[in-house]
């Protein structure tokens, strides 16, 4: 690995030293307590890897508040305990069973490259994603049922609608996990669906009665 | 889903409105440009879901800088294009092929509940994780080779050593992805391994020459 | 003090700026009037310091409504004008004589760490609280008469019963203050005893006829 | 007590039922978890009883975040383990020793009736507070050293200056508690001094270098 792993670029080293001399130093007691007493996050957030959406910023959340899983297009696969490595399912299991979070929040967003890729793939415009060897394509298969639901909408609305379906399908799939459903039905946990419009800085919330997203 | 999905707790709604009236409003041109021009992150970060480690804080990273995948124990599985859903591999593929990030940073941390669970499982003290139906246990199987490397260390050092092995094994597994290796060997991308001591606010960096972690 | 007093953590600074840009700005006329015309609260609330019980939330109380004293286990000491510093008695005197509140509400709650400590101390299981130098133990001495009343109950009911006794004893002690008794007997003020079940979100109210707490 | 303790006024009963049907119901999982897992507040806040200053509002703090002691004029007495009932000292001891909070925040405010009373008393204009039987006067004796520091200021600035001295003196007195000083000096806790201008919705922060309060 000698030739592959490198020291951190100095702009990051510099920023880390700055953080340590300021934010860390001012909050040292809190970091120490987090280290000693463990984490007690109130909520799990399932969010996209996208560099433009950081949930800690939107909700002014400090270290210790949110247990955050991030993957392409904030997708949750259906429950499938087949012994394979399932990173998303493992994160959910840990949050619900070990940390006993009170909320699971699925946060989608506008201009999602993953969702746009799924749309292109399902429309037949992205054969490279259809290859069995494409991890991105295979992952986005999880969102195919969403494409079926939106494919008859006008083209200008379709990708946004699919971004929101990514949230709804994840909520639906969450409920296929027996321990999620049990916690929700026992009143020990609640699910929440959000969609963030990056350019407008707006959060829209899934209303399960009307089945539409409404601005908060 | 009517009875399972709920509106956001009002303390989060309030904080969001506060964020929108301040941070968003002050940075609206930037958010608009991020929405219109797409993301161009410089680095991908593979980090743990743990609520105590937010890489954006440590590196003062704003929206648009880091493409962030977070899973239990910041693990990368080996390359395995078997057509199954691989969330971590999809995120890596998207970052390297689509976004062409210049760096992939694996960030481990102290007091990692996932790593402690792996240690307990491999030591025979967590039979529930050994069950084939445990997503957490199955996921942590990825770190079993690390346990073999640290099991003869003194008990007080073993879990920390395993937290660092989680970083090293992820770096090793990254290099099993042909497109990762190709990008690194072409000089288009570099890999970096970090371990964060939460209580001390310290970053330690993997030195591939000496194969040990050194404080930055 | 230079090395002991620190700037506020930035997550709180950010939230304050968010509050100022939203809640404060929307309610500026009310805050200005509160500043200019002084406070005219309708009730005094004596509540516990516990982070899980905020009376303003339960009663939707805005700025200006409740004059709130919070101490460990919502205790009122007996009237004792010995010239020492009595914070609780001072708060009561100010509320009754200066603010002429119409109600004094004592609000106890479930899972009270202070009451559990008193129970342990009186049962001989917390010698550290029995030390004369323990402020917590000395303060909880005020609740010893309550322990006498509940000690023969089954163990599973005893701590809850003692939490409710903390309310009753405070009401009794309130009536030892001549100005409290005078205001009550003149019909200018009434006393109220409540106990909040945190997990169930239930308020129970002391019924002075039956001497038991009943759900509201 | 039959004739002294009354049922809650119906406007409060109504609001409680409304809260239970909405806020509680939406957040039931969180309240249950707080009940089951106990509180882990990050900070203790020492604030005034004044009905116009609710720290949870300013900082968007939900149940579980702040352990809050409220007394007249947010005063901390000096360390004095004489075996008497000291409610403020007990709250501090519990927060520091049992809850191991990372921050203690003293929050003063404008238009403080307690501080104005102290000013009048020390200026010889409030003989009733000078009576040994006045709990308010005896309590405000704690702020007499502050009066000495501000008495030569112009009259228009003096009361505001004394409100801020109430914060500074409380910080000084906090450091007379051996367990407070030990926690601060070990880096496990930090102290913070704030003053809230009610009408302007502004927080000012004590700068221990310059010894003045500055707007945040």
UniProtKB/TrEMBL annotation, chains A, B, C, D:
Enzyme Commission numbers on file: 4.2.1.1
The name this protein goes by in its record: Carbonic anhydrase
Similarity field: Belongs to the beta-class carbonic anhydrase family.
Gene Ontology molecular function: carbonate dehydratase activity; zinc ion binding
Root EC class: lyase
Species annotation: Rhodobacter capsulatus (strain ATCC BAA-309 / NBRC 16581 / SB1003)
InterPro entries: Beta_CA_cladeB, Carbonic_anhydrase, Carbonic_anhydrase_CS, Carbonic_anhydrase_sf
GO BP annotation list: carbon utilization
